[in-house]
């Protein structure tokens, strides 16, 4: 197994657009030929679009894009711009001279970081598609990761900056990648370890605190805490799998969340993973799932380590220099 660039997975194009002044943005993953897709929503407070149609019992078999967005439920508007862009390029289902693309989306809550009234709108979704044509995606404080933060149990003054990350792996002709925007209530760790990347950070004492421990110590405060969360991501692959199998891939990929984020899948998180495939390469489902977990782990690490300090939030880059 080797590491590859995310844009080496043929059939997909990734682009982001952001409003850095107001701390929000969106990221799109396009598959113009149509992708077989699945989804798994584990968080208790999701803001999503077109997830029901990914149930194997429902009619639609191909989607054309996934949007990952800030702005909470307001950010769902960005997919309208993605739909416009794809329809203008005659991508989607041809229905009496109008092309109707299928665009799925999940949003995170970044409204407490910058301007609370700013969110990714239709134009930003359109702009992200234009950027996707270059297929040269960036990581860190871009797209859906622009206003992302972690470690929020004690409020934003103790939070740290996170962002957008991705990673991709290859075995033979099989390629699997992960894109993620990390905006968790909890902390980011290196996979299967107690080595922290980003979480609760006391700037006054230069001290890291661990969210799970602090939540257990202050259980009575939980009802008023952790309200600005959600980690959203997407697996992309060229494996030839059906709709039911892609739902399983999305489910398995949540193991990557669990290995790197603590706590995760809480009632106030909207943790969601989509999975898309171009159906080009015969592959065994569980192998794809294992690769998806590994790719997601590294994508989460990248989202934590490549983010820059911004909006008054310290980053991993900043505190590891101290």
UniProtKB/TrEMBL annotation:
GO molecular function, one term: aminopeptidase activity
SUPFAM superfamilies per record: DmpA/ArgJ-like
The organism's place on the tree of life at top rank: Bacteria
Family per similarity comment: Belongs to the peptidase S58 family.
Designated name of the protein: Peptidase family T4
Organism field: Holdemanella biformis DSM 3989
């Amino acid at each position: 197994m080797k590491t590859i660039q995310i844009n080496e997975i043929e059939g997909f194009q990734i682009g982001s657009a952001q409003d850095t002044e107001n701390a929000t943005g969106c990221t799109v993953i396009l598959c113009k030929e149509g992708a077989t897709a699945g989804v798994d929503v584990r968080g208790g407070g999701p803001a999503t679009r077109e997830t029901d149609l990914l149930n194997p019992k429902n009619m639609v078999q191909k989607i054309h894009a996934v949007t990952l967005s800030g702005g909470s439920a307001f950010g769902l508007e960005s997919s309208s711009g993605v739909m416009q862009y794809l329809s203008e390029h005659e991508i989607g289902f041809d229905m009496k001279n109008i092309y109707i693309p299928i665009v799925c989306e999940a949003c995170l809550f970044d409204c407490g970081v910058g301007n609370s009234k700013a969110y990714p709108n239709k134009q930003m979704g359109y702009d992200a598609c234009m950027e996707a044509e270059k297929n040269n995606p960036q990581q860190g404080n871009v797209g859906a990761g622009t206003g992302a933060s972690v470690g929020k149990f004690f409020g934003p003054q103790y939070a740290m900056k996170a962002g957008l990350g991705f990673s991709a792996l290859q075995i033979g002709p099989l390629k699997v990648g992960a894109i993620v925007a990390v905006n968790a209530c909890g902390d980011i760790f290196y996979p299967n370890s107690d080595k922290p990347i980003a979480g609760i950070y006391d700037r006054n004492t230069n001290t890291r605190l661990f969210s799970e421990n602090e939540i257990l110590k202050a259980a009575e405060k939980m009802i008023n805490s952790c309200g600005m969360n959600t980690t959203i991501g997407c697996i992309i692959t060229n494996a030839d799998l059906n709709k039911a199998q892609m739902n399983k891939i999305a489910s398995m990929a949540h193991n990557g969340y669990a290995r790197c984020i603590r706590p995760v899948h809480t009632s106030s998180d909207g943790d969601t993973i989509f999975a898309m495939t171009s159906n080009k390469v015969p592959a065994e489902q569980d192998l794809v799932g294992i690769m998806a977990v590994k790719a997601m782990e590294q994508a989460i690490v990248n989202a934590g380590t490549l983010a820059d300090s911004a909006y008054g939030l310290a980053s991993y880059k900043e505190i590891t220099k101290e």
